[in-house]
Specification:
alpha+beta; three-stranded antiparallel sheet
Length: 267
Amino acid sequence: MSVQTLYTAATGMEALETKLDVIANNMANINTTGFKKDRANFEDLFYRQQRLPGSIDADGNFTSTGIEVGLGTRVSSTQTNHVQGAMQTTDNPLDLAIEGDGFFKVTTSANGSFYSRAGNFGINPNGDLVLGSAYKGWVLDPPVNIPQDAMDIAISSNGQVEYRVAGQAQLQTAGQLQIAKFINPDGLLKVGDNLYQETAASGTEFLGNPDDPGFGTLSQGALEASNVEPVTELIDLITTQRAFELNSQVVQAGDQIMQIAANLRRG
């Protein structure tokens, strides 16, 4: 007797386990600045063709259907949802949020360029704007340098950075922020630390100033929250758990049927 039932149901359990991992990561990052939730996509596997549609029967007529038995499922891809997250006001002048399309570009001399939606910036000892990170100083690219005696830092919606020096009424220009776009942001590689990396699938970067046509604008004193929706994830979690249980019951049923068939005796 064929054990295909066991293998087919097992592919469902394996795929659903991957989906559960994706949901767990979404829920774990519900408070991560600029985080974009993922979705697991599925596809069916190869079919065993016992009779092809359109076959000729014994009377010389064409059949309208065939006999096809599928061999299960697998995860075809994980896809990132780049829908805008909610804006959280912080009143920190170095916190920035992108409203619309685009990514902040950051770099280090050793690791190259990366991209992020997180805008929790700070100033390093050299006066450069850097993205907040636990392990590396990701410098904004192109760099923006703010002097030690700078006061009243102002960042406009189009990315112009200005500051005031004590005793002077006139604003000084520190630099111009730029953001990057990609023709296929789903093709970006997630590397952790709120960062993405360019790949052949994403295409090359398009740099522009905020508020340029097709680019988002900047909001100073705000951060973009994660776009994870707890209720939706909870519903997805429950349905995934139930589907996993159903596939496990199919495995048990297939095993029981095989035991019955193995125990048959001729009278």
